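TASK: fixed-backbone design
INPUT:
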């Protein structure tokens, strides 16, 4: 007897409803847009909307809509074309300056009620849709200075740990480091230690001084290492953004290309991949900082910083901090955000590596009860108009966010306070992804078209549609009513694949389309196997309803066996492959899972609806 459990119909209806909800967003086109996001606490309000609208009107850029989102603290300008998008961004950047990040974007037109259900269109790869292209210039001079500062500090620690008294260990502008010893007789011992621990440094003893010079090939290696570390860090940061199949590669000696397909929030992406925010922990130097600033008499071991909070007169409060860094962002290997149990303020819990933990342990052991400061350092881009020309520059912002007395000895795990919730969250992501070896500036930002070319993409999609249409026509002619059942199952299979890819945030690329075409072919094979099995049972003389039930029962095992082996192949490609191979594996797995369900279960449910209730059924249209 041909029957189908009611609970299976309920499951089928739920699957059909969810598939429709999560697949529908892919039918809504996306608008080229420009997103304006506050950089450091700048207001995003109606005044900004009016300022942007007036600026675009003056530049002759017509807009579709200007949306103000106070929850996300950004402003979105929707435009009619990519050309207007670039023109609008170029007009707004010099007008808004460094207080705002102006980024190219692709805005969704999906209704709000669908987005509240988590239904979003799937991202398209660079080969199908294109994406955002960033060209970034690495500041190699800053990389060298950073590396030399670290080497200088390592030398101080080396001499101190081996009880060799020194007056100073300073770096000079000509890339040399001068160690001045208290006892000239200790110069030979110090030289031996430096040779053992820093063999790449060239030594020139001069009385109680040792002049250390970095060889030119080492300087070149420093710069090359900085580029490679930045590329690695960018990959970690892009992965944190959840961008699928990005392109991150080195270009020339000092540039890095980053291409992000289908990114919805390019302002956030730009802020994350280019940010150089980090922390430094420094000791507080005794003295009157206000007097030191006014007179210029600053202690030789100190440097003037300014606290984030301001005084009663509205001016920033100065503070004297030691030039020596106790620990910095380079030594942080972990970071999480949370809230302080007593005050409820945001905190960043950090974990140092062994070298940083040892330095922190030594410092806190010797300075219990003394103050230590946390310096928040951020590199901010600036755009100015000089003589009618757009001039890009970078401003380094250093603020003391926290000063607290050391209550006890600690080493590699502790908490940092004084940050806002947004700063704590972003800083945690940056620290977890790794520190940039050198700061970078955005040289170029633009929307790029599909790498395959618009015409090739359209032809490929047309070919897939025609081939799918030919298959449907064949089924309708050859299998008649069961051809209709097969067509419905195939269409639902496609809807389910698109819904699953949208739900899981997968990126559709050309290899992904090939994977879908393959799974559609496997679904066709499964339906052919079922239909031919039913025909065979009818030729053996079984009643129509029995033939349908027997055909499905006997074909299901073969179909599931074949699909399991193919699914394992897709799993291997997704797990061990990358780029196009991984995209092909993911779509293959999703397509196989949905095709097995639609061929075995959905088509049987439809056939049961058509023929299951007929008691005197003598023939079926197959």
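OUTPUT:
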């Amino acid at each position: 007897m041909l029957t189908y459990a009611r609970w299976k119909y309920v499951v089928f209806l739920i699957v059909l409803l969810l598939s429709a909800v999560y697949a529908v967003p892919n039918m809504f086109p996306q608008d080229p847009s420009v997103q304006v996001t506050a950089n450091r606490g700048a207001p995003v309000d109606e005044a900004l909307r009016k300022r942007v609208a007036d600026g675009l009107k003056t530049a002759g850029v017509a807009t579709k809509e200007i949306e103000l989102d106070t929850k996300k603290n950004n402003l979105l300008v929707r435009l009619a074309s990519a050309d207007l998008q670039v023109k609008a961004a170029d007009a707004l950047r010099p007008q808004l300056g460094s207080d705002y990040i102006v980024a190219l974007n692709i805005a969704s037109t999906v209704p709000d009620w669908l987005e509240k259900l988590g239904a979003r269109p799937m991202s398209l790869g660079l080969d199908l849709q294109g994406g955002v292209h960033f060209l970034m210039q690495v500041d190699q001079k800053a990389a060298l200075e950073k590396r030399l500062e670290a080497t200088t500090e390592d030398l101080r620690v080396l001499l101190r740990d081996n009880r060799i008294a020194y007056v100073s260990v300073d770096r000079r502008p000509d890339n040399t480091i001068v160690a001045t010893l208290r006892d000239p007789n200790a110069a030979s011992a110090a030289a031996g230690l430096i040779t053992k621990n820093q063999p790449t440094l060239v030594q020139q003893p001069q009385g109680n001084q040792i002049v250390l010079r970095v060889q030119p090939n080492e300087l070149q290696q420093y710069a090359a290492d900085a580029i490679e570390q930045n590329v690695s860090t960018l990959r970690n940061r892009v992965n944190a953004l959840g961008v699928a199949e990005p392109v991150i590669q080195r270009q020339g000696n000092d540039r890095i290309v980053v291409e992000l397909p289908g990114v919805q929030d390019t302002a956030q992406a730009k802020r994350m991949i280019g940010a150089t925010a980090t922390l430094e922990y420094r000791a507080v130097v005794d003295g009157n900082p206000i007097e030191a600033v006014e007179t210029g008499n600053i202690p030789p071991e100190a440097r003037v910083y300014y606290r984030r909070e301001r005084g009663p007169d509205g001016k920033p409060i100065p503070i004297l901090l030691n030039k020596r860094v106790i620990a910095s962002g380079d030594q942080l290997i972990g970071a999480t955000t949370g809230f302080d149990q007593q005050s409820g303020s945001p905190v960043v819990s950090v974990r140092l590596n062994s070298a940083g933990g040892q330095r922190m342990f030594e410092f806190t052991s010797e300075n219990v009860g003394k103050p230590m400061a946390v310096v928040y350092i951020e590199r901010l881009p600036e755009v100015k108009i000089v003589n009618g020309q757009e001039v890009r520059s970078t401003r380094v912002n250093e603020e003391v966010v926290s000063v607290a007395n050391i209550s006890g000895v600690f080493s590699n795990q502790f908490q940092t306070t004084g940050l806002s919730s947004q700063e704590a969250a972003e800083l945690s992501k940056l620290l977890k992804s790794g520190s940039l070896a050198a700061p970078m500036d955005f040289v170029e930002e633009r929307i790029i078209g599909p790498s395959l070319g618009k015409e090739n993409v359209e032809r490929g999609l047309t070919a897939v549609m025609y081939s799918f249409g030919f298959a449907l026509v064949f089924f309708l002619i050859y299998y008649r009513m069961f051809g209709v059942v097969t067509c419905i199952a195939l269409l639902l299979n496609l809807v389910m694949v698109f819904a699953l890819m949208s739900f899981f945030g997968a990126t559709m690329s050309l290899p992904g389309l090939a994977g879908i075409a393959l799974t559609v072919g496997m679904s066709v094979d499964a339906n052919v196997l079922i239909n031919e099995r039913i025909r065979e049972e009818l030729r053996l003389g079984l009643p129509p309803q029995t033939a349908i039930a027997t055909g499905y029962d006997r074909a299901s095992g073969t179909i599931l066996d074949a699909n399991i082996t193919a699914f394992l192949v897709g799993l291997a490609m997704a797990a061990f492959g990358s780029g196009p191979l991984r995209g092909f594996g993911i779509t293959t797995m999703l397509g196989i899972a949905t095709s097995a369900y639609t061929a075995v279960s959905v088509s049987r449910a439809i056939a049961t609806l058509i023929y299951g209730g007929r008691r005197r059924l003598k023939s079926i249209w197959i």
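COMMENT: Residues 110 and 475 are 35 Å apart (CA to CA).
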